[in-house]
């Protein structure tokens, strides 16, 4: 990637091995695999709120569309596949049906995250793995740092977990990829989390276990519906943000990301 901002595009190359694809999945070139992080299936049911249960079906629909358009061989769910393991029988059936639909178009690999708990979601998700390797990259959820042996055996690490987001003003934010030479952070695909601001000190601290110590090492790619917006390095974007008349060149974004999925 170049350090300067680029024009909006549906696909943005992050490294030699991987590209970002709207609305927020990673595409691994060699293995032809889609990586989606933090989908949090059955969210509405697990939290017990008076919300219509729509997100599982819509996220599955989005993944199916991307897998078909890219002719993917594999779909990788990178942890926090469910929001929690305690859900109603109806919600569990819907999750299983969604996973079955994904398996009809490509091989499905599920990485366990912290929301899968001690059971790793076995009763609902079936077999899960703690990590895997594709195209020389180590893929883990990101709630733990990889071991030195794991890092040394790979060309880089791909994680989710952090839900990185780019603030765009008026208390709005959009999901964002963070990408460096040895680390890619995939944004959350759930519509229910505004995430961790890429400008925050908390975000930089969370990346330190992955050997990221400076904002100059990271590129930011905002993810919206059918377009991605590459903004160059995080350090340069932070400087721009501090200018009184600066604006992120993004279209207005509704706080209700349900619209995002229905526009697919």
Layout of strands and helices, then pairs:
Elements: E1 11-13, E2 18-21, E3 25-28, E4 33-36, H1 43-47, H2 55-70, E5 74-78, H3 89-105, E6 107-111, H4 122-125, E7 132-134, E8 137-139, H5 148-152, E9 156-159, E10 164-169, E11 172-179, E12 183-185, E13 196-197, H6 201-207, E14 219-224, E15 227-233, H7 234-241, H8 258-262
Parallel strand pairs: 4-5, 5-6, 8-9, 9-12, 10-13
Antiparallel strand pairs: 1-2, 2-3, 3-4, 7-8, 10-11, 11-12, 11-14, 14-15
Helix pairs in contact: 2-3
Structure description:
By secondary structure, the protein is α/β, with parallel strands linked by helices. The protein has one domain (13-244): Purple Acid Phosphatase, chain A, domain 2 (4-Layer Sandwich). The protein has helices spanning 43-47, 55-70, 89-105, 122-125, 148-152, 201-207, 234-241, 258-262; strands at 11-13, 18-21, 25-28, 33-36, 74-78, 107-111, 132-134, 137-139, 156-159, 164-169, 172-179, 183-185, 196-197, 219-224, 227-233. Strands 7, 8, 9, 10, 11, 12, 13, 14 and 15 form a nine-stranded mixed sheet that branches. A six-stranded mixed sheet has the order 1-2-3-4-5-6, covered by helices on one side. Helix 2 (55-70) packs parallel to helix 3. The two termini are 27 Å apart.
């Amino acid at each position: 990637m170049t350090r300067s901002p680029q024009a909006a595009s549906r696909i943005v190359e992050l490294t030699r091995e991987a590209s970002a694809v709207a609305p927020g999945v990673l595409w691994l070139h060699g293995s032809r695999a889609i990586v989606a992080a933090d989908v949090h299936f059955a969210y509405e049911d697990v939290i017990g709120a008076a919300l219509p249960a729509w997100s599982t079906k819509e996220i599955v629909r989005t993944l199916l569309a991307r897998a078909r358009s890219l002719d993917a061989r594999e779909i990788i769910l990178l942890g926090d596949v469910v929001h929690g393991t305690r859900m109603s029988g109806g919600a569990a059936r819907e999750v299983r049906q969604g996973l079955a639909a994904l398996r009809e178009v490509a091989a499905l690999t599920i990485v366990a995250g912290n929301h899968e708990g001690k059971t790793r979601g076995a009763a609902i998700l079936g077999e899960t793995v703690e990590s895997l390797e594709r195209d020389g990259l180590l893929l883990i959820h990101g709630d733990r740092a990889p071991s030195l042996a794991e890092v040394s055996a790979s060309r880089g690490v791909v994680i989710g977990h952090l839900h990185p987001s780019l603030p765009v003003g008026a208390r709005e934010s959009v999901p964002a990829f963070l990408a460096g030479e040895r680390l890619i952070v995939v944004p959350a695909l759930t519509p229910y989390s505004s995430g961790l601001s890429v400008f925050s000190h908390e975000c930089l601290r969370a990346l330190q276990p992955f050997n990221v110590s400076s904002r100059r090492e990271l590129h930011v790619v905002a993810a919206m519906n059918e377009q991605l917006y590459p903004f160059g390095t995080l350090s340069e974007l932070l400087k721009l943000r501090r200018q009184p008349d600066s604006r992120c060149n993004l279209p207005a974004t509704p706080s209700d990301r349900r619209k995002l999925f229905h526009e697919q």
